[in-house]
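Supplementary Methods, section 5.1.

A reviewer requested that the exact input to the structure prediction be made available. We therefore reproduce it here, unchanged from the version used in the analyses.
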Amino acid sequence: MNGLALDGVRIVDFSWQIAGPTCTRYLGAMGADVIRIESGRRPDPYRARTISYFINQSKKSITLNLSHPQGIQLVKDLASISDVVVENFAPGVIERLGLSYEEFRSVRPEIVMLSSAGLGHSGPDMKHVAYGTLVQCFTGWSALQGYPDREPELVSGIWTDPMVGIMEVFLINAAIHNARQTGKGEYIDVSMAEATTMLLPEVILDYGMNQRTSDPLGNRDIHYAPQGNYPCIGQDEWIGISIKDDLQWGSLCAVLACSELEKDLRFDTLEKRRLNHDDLDALLSKYTRDWDATDLMEALQDKGVPAGNTQTVPQLNNNKHWEYRNFFQDYMEEDDDHTTHSLPVVPWRFDGEIEASVTGQPNRGQHNLAIFEDLLGLTEAEVEKLIEQEVIY
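The structure derived from this sequence is encoded token-by-token as follows.
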């Protein structure tokens, strides 16, 4: 592979929180020159959280006062030599700043702009405050999580935002390709809720075709039995097992040396195993408790049985498979202590090699001089005056 896919692409990045920065992090890793515009007065609250070290890699950072007309003009000057604008403010904010898509298109007709919001930029509920928790509830995800006869649950951790951010990566790549083919830019309106709902086609179709609603199943699945996490030797050691057919069921019983379960008429078909799942789980657990989780995983995998030991974070960092693929790498931050972090790099390989440009998170405003003087052509005196006027700050 010669160079990176997005070499030569420049991105003006207003995004904050998680979804937008996740998107631009991957675009930067693909070679794009991502210039993040930050505020000295209203810093991104996620800069104070550890996730920032990951989602703000592979970027440059400048600081601008967007309430000042000269700050807005500098943004337009930057956009005039850029290919993409990314923002995920609340609906209406970017327009009130005087930075609508029409404004950007007036200075660069082929520019692509992606705007994402919890519920999109149209519709009666578009101004609802929408973090990941609302998105999970609004889209029906929370009603499907947890266990039967309990209150709905939220999937812990922030997962809707990164998922949407990754979806935005391919949308922007497609729009860049189209702009290069046609010379025309596009405005992309992304709804986090709609993107999240796209992950539920089966339950939506089941209701539409059969008027049948889906209930939470805990760790189970209607198409697999047994399925769940089972205890192993040690404190809080578990293995996840998922059996889709009788062949895998027989292999599981052979590895665990539990032929009596294989012969038990309550479990001799997938449907019977599903209907008698409680009894089956209790019996299986008696056998898995005698195994080391990793040893059992490898024994089952050798027989073609889907199984995985439930890894902790320390185990992730010492995983031999990821070590072989060089998935975790060390990055030095641009802070006074030059802190080093071990983080995942990218989940792809081209011709067996990691093809990515991944650098540590920049300090806020670290690239002010490089962008305003070297790229936009301002003199040192002009930059100093803008700093005094709190346009650059």
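The longest helix spans residues 160-182. These observations are discussed further in the main text.
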